[in-house]
Write a structure and sequence with these properties.
- This is MFS transporter.
- It is a multi-pass membrane protein.
- Keywords: Cell membrane, Membrane, Transmembrane, Transmembrane helix.
- It is found in: Cell inner membrane.
- It is built from 24 helices and no strands.
- With about 425 residues, it is an all-alpha fold.
- It is globular.
- The protein starts with about 20 loop residues before the first helix and ends with a helix.
- About 55% of the residues are buried.
Length: about 425
């Protein structure tokens, strides 16, 4: 008898999601939104910690190094969890670790030390790394292979719902509660007064993260009790016993489509993180104003990102994903260069518009790189999540550029990153059918 999860790969009439996976698909969408909240609540922290602890942009950019560095460190362990147990086990493990990291913001706010906050961020992001390594391929297996790219783009379209919530929380609960005192004024304050101001500011940082921990607990419980078909969640004992990491790595690296996909993902995440992390600095340098008012433009960026995700998912019904990837990466680089050469109101809106270009990149690179990997998909997924290290490395370079040349010139960094993504898109157009 034919398996109920079998469908013609390229059939237009094939179901987008298998009927017995719909509830699981809907619940996983909440995970995509959840890590969007965490990531984009974290972006403004570079500016926040720079002010609270009176440090350079490079030093405060260690926030992103801790966050995305955790993604790099935990992706391979996540792949072993998925291979040994199941995608569902990976999702639950990731959510549990993220809950611990979010709760750690409470003792961090009491200690009032930068290192403690970095440690809490690392634990939070470690959980999200496992979650993302598990959820992305899980979504891809929930329907016909021919619609995997569109299905992943649809699920990822709910990620910017979370990003908008994250920026909104930062803009309403964190940024307005920063004391307006400058670095010079803080340096001249009595130690007791400075300590009191810092305690209030760090308490504002802690509040939304601890609140998020309780939301993640609810999501964890719902996913724990969700029913997943045994065919999609059972452990293949023979496959587990035959795991050979070295051989798997060799097969993955032998595939140009995958190998260069990891490189492209590194620079895609780098471009995204750089663009959003330093939007506030760019706006303040060109238009002036407070951190809270400048954060409005980051919110506009993420609204555009949200709308564009759904638009791009629709366009993929008419155009090859690789073609769209190439065009939007080139446009993203052009917008960065415009912002550098024409600073001011139009430059700010160029930075905001970059989010439309970013909207389809992560899931599209992900699905192109994993196409046809078969049993190597779980470890292939881990490699693509490890590529998120780009979000740890490149913001440090852009932060150092800001310290030396200013926020305007620093957007040359994401401009270069987009060109690498464009090159992968053009490679994929010529060498793949995706």
């Amino acid at each position: 008898m034919k398996n109920q999860n079998t469908a013609p790969e390229n059939s237009l009439s094939a179901p987008f999601v298998y009927p017995n996976m719909k509830i699981a698909f809907i619940l996983l969408i909440t995970c995509f939104a959840a890590w969007g909240v965490a990531a984009n609540m974290t972006d403004p922290l570079v500016k926040v910690f720079s002010k609270i602890f009176t440090m350079s942009t490079f030093e405060s950019a260690l926030v992103q190094f801790a966050y995305y560095g955790a993604y790099f460190c935990l992706a391979i362990p996540a792949a072993f969890i998925n291979a040994r147990y199941s995608y569902k086990a990976g999702v639950l493990t990731g959510l549990g670790l993220a809950i611990l990291g979010a709760l750690a913001f409470y003792p961090a706010s009491i200690s009032m030390t930068y290192g403690f906050f970095l440690a809490a961020l690392f634990i939070l992001a470690a959980g999200l790394s496992i979650l993302e390594t598990s959820a992305n391929p899980f979504v891809m297996t929930m329907g016909p292979e021919g619609s995997a790219a569109r299905r992943l783009n649809l699920a990822q379209a709910f990620n910017p719902v979370g990003t908008n919530i994250g920026v909104f929380l930062a803009a309403t609960l964190i940024l307005p509660n920063l004391n307006t005192a400058s670095a010079e004024e803080r340096a001249s304050m009595a130690p007791e007064m400075l300590l009191s101001i810092r305690a209030d500011e760090l308490n504002s940082v802690m509040t939304p993260y601890v609140g998020m921990a309780f939301v993640l607990m609810v999501i964890w419980a719902l996913i724990y009790f969700m029913r997943v078909p045994k065919s999609a969640n059972k452990v293949n004992v023979d496959e587990v016993q035959k795991i050979d990491f070295v051989a798997t790595l060799g097969r993955l690296l032998a595939r140009k489509q995958y190998r260069w996909g990891v490189v492209a993902q590194f620079f895609n995440v780098a471009a995204q993180t750089c663009t959003w992390t330093f939007t506030i600095q760019y706006v303040q340098e060109t238009l002036g104003g407070t951190e809270a008012s400048a954060s409005d433009y980051l919110q506009y960026s993420l609204i555009i990102f949200l709308v564009s995700r759904f638009v791009m998912t629709w366009l993929m019904g008419f155009f090859r994903p690789a073609v769209l990837l190439s065009i939007l990466a080139l446009l993203g680089s052009a917008l960065c260069l415009y912002a550098v050469m024409v600073p001011g109101v139009t430059g700010v809106w160029a930075i905001v518009s970059i989010s439309a270009c970013l909207s389809l990149m992560f899931p599209t690179i992900y699905s192109i790189a994993l196409d046809g990997l078969g049993s190597d998909t779980k470890f292939g997924s881990a490699g693509l999540v490890m590529a998120i290290l780009g979000g740890a490395v490149m913001p440090l370079i852009q932060g150092a550029t800001i310290d030396e040349y200013g926020a305007i010139a620093s957007y040359l960094v994401p401009a270069v990153c987009f060109l690498v993504v464009a090159a992968y898109g053009m490679f994929s157009v010529k060498n793949t059918t995706v």
